[in-house]
Amino acid sequence: MKPFVPQLIYFEPKALDYPLGKQLLEKFKEMGKEILYTTSHNQVRNLPGDNDFQKYRVAKSTLVVGVRKTLKFDTSKPSAEYAIPFATGCMGHCHYCYLQTTMGSKPYIRTYVNVDEIFDAAENYMKERAPEETRFEASCTSDIVGIDHLTHTLKRAIEYFGKSDHGKLRFVTKFHHVDHLLDADHQGKTRFRFSMNADYVIKNFEPGTSPLAKRIEAATKVADADYPLGFIIAPIYLHDGWQDGYKKLFEQLEAELPDKAKKDLTFELIQHRFTKPAKRVIEKNYPMTKLELDEEQRRYKWGKYGIGKYIYQKDEEAEMKEVLGGYIEKYFPKASLEYFT
Ligand code: SF4
Q: Which residues form a coiled coil (predicted)?
């Protein structure tokens, strides 16, 4: 599982007004990559491919280097106060990924080079809430670690929040390419989280991401670098032998993590859910998926803008919470469960 290298690369001409834009241009030229240009990172059209299925796959390996215009941050409950927008899109192919619906016709990856302007906006949000601390989530619209070996934006952000008085950074990843982040001066202000799951879920529904063993190895490196560590178990997905599958995951984590990581560990638990529009997109992009998307089997929960989601039945939900909560207590008694949703 090699670090991501885009097949197609586009630049917004304005990106070259920023140091990171120039650096990336040089880097891609040295790699022998053809550079294409686009007037706006929101308008990359005519990607190659004979049909939607192929175009979708090409888009997921296309990188657009652009300038982030909207510097108003979205809120990011329950894990943080705000989403900090360094990138949009992801090269992974998780069948259930919520980005499939939120990114609609633009599944290509965008990285933003006006990083200082994004930091300035974050500073204003922090000032507004001071002396309360403000948490920023860097992985709401992408798997930021997956492209950071190219941009090092996340590394800068870790060091930026390390120096801040009232800011905290958090992000989650399914990738193990973390080595360049290990020596960042984080000052304990970044919570580095990994998305973990039962082996069945990773193998069947998370193509294009790092395997479980690699994620665990990366988590141990991150713990050794003294980052506060966390795990998001999402989506919790009921399948034959799920209790045992999740138990094995906890056993592996417990066996491999260094003791110091176990003292300040957080868990976030998110059950599988889908919306009707998501189901349509998933069935189009991953027609062979085994992912169970039967509305009849689920409970409907009203959501924002009239788009409700299908979650597990109350008794299933209670069982999941009890089983996984029990594993947390058994294997990591000092850890905290931040939420189950
Ligand atoms: Fe989506 Fe995360 Fe998978 Fe990327 S790694 S496809 S962001 S779920």
A: none
Q: Whose CA is nearest to atom 5 of ligand 1?
A: 92
- CA of 299 from ligand 1 middle (Å) equals 24
- Assess contact for 162 and 187: CB atoms under 8 A: yes
Mention every residue, 6+ apart, whose C-beta is less than 8 A from residue 195. Answer: 172, 173, 174, 215, 231, 232, 233, 234
pLDDT one digit per residue (tens) for the chain, 341 residues: 899 999 999 999 999 999 999 999 999 999 999 999 999 878 888 889 998 889 999 999 999 999 999 999 999 988 899 999 999 999 999 999 988 888 877 899 999 999 999 999 999 999 999 999 999 999 999 999 999 999 999 999 999 999 999 999 999 999 999 999 999 999 999 999 999 999 999 999 999 999 999 999 999 999 999 999 999 999 999 999 999 999 999 999 999 999 999 999 999 999 999 999 999 999 999 999 999 999 999 999 998 777 899 999 999 999 999 999 999 999 999 999 999 99
**pTM for the full predicted model:** 0.96
Q: Ligand 1, atom 1: nearest CA belongs to which residue?
A: 97
- CA-proximal residue: ligand 1, atom 3 (nearest): 94
Which atom, in ligand 1's list, is nearest to the CA of 175?
5
Closest of 6, 16, 106 to residue 62, by C-alpha: 6
The pick from 56, 145, 174, 236 for probing ligand 1's pocket by mutation, whose C-beta has the most ligand atoms within 8 angstroms, reads 174
Q: For domain 8-340, which CATH number applies: 3.40.50.1860, 3.50.50.60, 3.10.20.600, 3.80.30.30?
A: 3.80.30.30
Compute the distance between CA of residue 337 and CA of residue 329 in angstroms, rounded to an integer: 9
**Cα–ligand 1 centroid distance for 246 (angstroms):** 20
Task: Report the nearest-CA residue for atom 2 of ligand 1.
Answer: 143
